[in-house]
Each structure stands twice: as C-alpha cells, then as structure tokens.
Amino acid sequence: MPQLLSEHACFGGLQRFYQHDSSAIGLPMRFSIYLPPGAEGRPLPVLFYLAGLTCTEETFAIKAGAQRVAAEEGLILVAPDTSPRGAQVPGEADSWDFGVGAGFYIDASQAPWSRHYRMDSYILELRELVLREFGADPARCGIFGHSMGGHGALTMALKHPELFRSVSAFAPIAAPSRCPRGEKAFTGYLGEDRAAWRAHDATELVASGPVRFPGGILVDRGMADKFLPEQLHPDAFEAACRAAGQPLTLRRHPGYDHGYYFIASFVEDHLRFHRRQLG
C-alpha cells in the first residue's frame, strides 16, 4: 500500500496525496487521488490526469476545481507527478522544459536519462496500483491532460486503447515532432533518430490508424494561448484525425489562455464527457 501523506475532506469525498516506491522509475513517486462519496466497496470509473510542464501531483487537485463534478459523477480522479524527483542526473534542473518537472510521459532511451526517466511505464504502473489498492473498475479507465500532459494523455490512449476507454486534452502539444519544445525533449530523451519519435507523437499515431476511439476524442484550446502558434499544433492533429476517420471534437475558445483559469472553465465538460464514455 502506498504511504498516505495527507488527506482532506472535499465535496463529501476525500482528496488524498500518496507516495510509493516505483519499480518503473526506481525512485519514490507521488500522486494525488480523489475518492468520491461512497467509493468504498464498489468499483468506480477512474480518470487519470496528466499535468503539464513544471507541475506536480498537487497542481490539478488545487487549481482545476474538478472534485465537485467528480463527486456528482462518482469518478475517481488520479494525478501523478510530472517527472522523477531526486534522480540526480547532471543538469536535470537546469531547464524548465526538460528534466525535473518535464518527463514528457515517455520512456527515455538515451543515457543518463534512461535509468529513471520512464514516465510512460510509470503511468501504466500507477494504473495497476490504483486498480489494485483503490478498487477502481479496470474496464472503465479514462485519461486526460494539459499541455505536455495533453500530449501524454493522447499518446498513452492511442497506444493503449484496451487500457484507456476515453481520452481528452486541454491545449495539448499535439505534434511534438514539429515544435521546439517537443524536439528538445525527444532529442534529449530519445536521440536524434526522428523515426523513433513517431511512437510518441499523437498526430503520427492517429494517422497510422486504425480508429481507436469511435466515440470520439475531445480537445479544447484557448485562442489567446501564447503557445498556440509555435508549440501546440492542434490543427495538425485535427487534420490527421479527419484523414484517419477518427472522430474528434476540437473546440476553440476565444479569449482563453494556456493556464488553469482556462482548465477550470471547461473541466466539467471533460469529466462529464468521460463519464458518458465510461458508462
């Protein structure tokens, strides 16, 4: 059982924070979990949220305001940290968009990152832990995320549709092979061979088919997002979905930026979208 760090009553349920020893990472990792009212003794649907650059396991729980809707819908919410902590890789804290707080939800293949920076495997490990220790329903797991975490949610779902039945994203880095931030991360973690990047690029994955989510994917973007022109490329993802026949709802919101005011404004829509998909 993971170690309970703190517990807080919230909308009739419990917001908890845990630490556990991760075999995938080889270091202690932290995650948050919201258990809605009446969670004990019945298998509930679970929704995994992957946060963006510089965030931790606390960010979503504190800023998004999702617990009220999760309580109404009977949804378990889980949010992991965004990278290993304490790996002691030289230079891992030198840049805000690479290293600590910036694991990009991939398994690094390049030394020295490959020893601990294994966030793809960690998300799968965390899913199993939550199913085992908190009684979540293995047939009703969804995933969503923001920015770097939106990239992670899309790619994890597209690679593992048998594990995640629903997927959505806020302002995802939707074509990381085509943007400076993604190129930096992929080069550092995966090396110079761009062919190896395709398995971690949502636009490339959805273009390769088949249709994984016939019920659709939901993506929201803010039209005042300063990262939109250079870093996010949702239009490329939309075009790839259209060509592959993958249903997608891409909503464009005038005036909204990249941050948690944007997420808090539309998180209810995402939770209810997942609840409909998960049943």
How would you characterize the overall build of this protein?
With 279 residues, the chain is an alpha/beta fold. The protein contains nine helices and nine strands. The chain has helices at residues 59-63, 67-73, 119-134, 148-159, 180-190, 202-207, 228-232, 234-244, 260-278; strands spanning 3-10, 13-21, 28-35, 44-50, 76-80, 136-146, 166-170, 217-222, 248-253. A hairpin with a 2-residue loop joins strand 1 (3-10) and strand 2. The relative contact order is 0.14. The mean pLDDT is 97.
Portion in beta strands: 15-25%
Count all strands and give the number: 9
Q: Report the principal-axis shape.
A: globular
Average pLDDT over all residues: 97
Key phrases:
279 residues; nine-stranded mixed beta sheet; 9 strands; 9 helices; alpha/beta; 33% helix
SSE diagram, text form:
Blueprint: E1 3-10, E2 13-21, E3 28-35, E4 44-50, H1 59-63, H2 67-73, E5 76-80, H3 119-134, E6 136-146, H4 148-159, E7 166-170, H5 180-190, H6 202-207, E8 217-222, H7 228-232, H8 234-244, E9 248-253, H9 260-278
Parallel strand pairs: 4-5, 4-6, 6-7, 7-8, 8-9
Antiparallel strand pairs: 1-2, 2-3, 3-5
Please provide a brief summary of the model.
With 279 residues, this protein is an alpha/beta fold. Helix content is 33%, strand content 23%. 53% of the residues are buried.
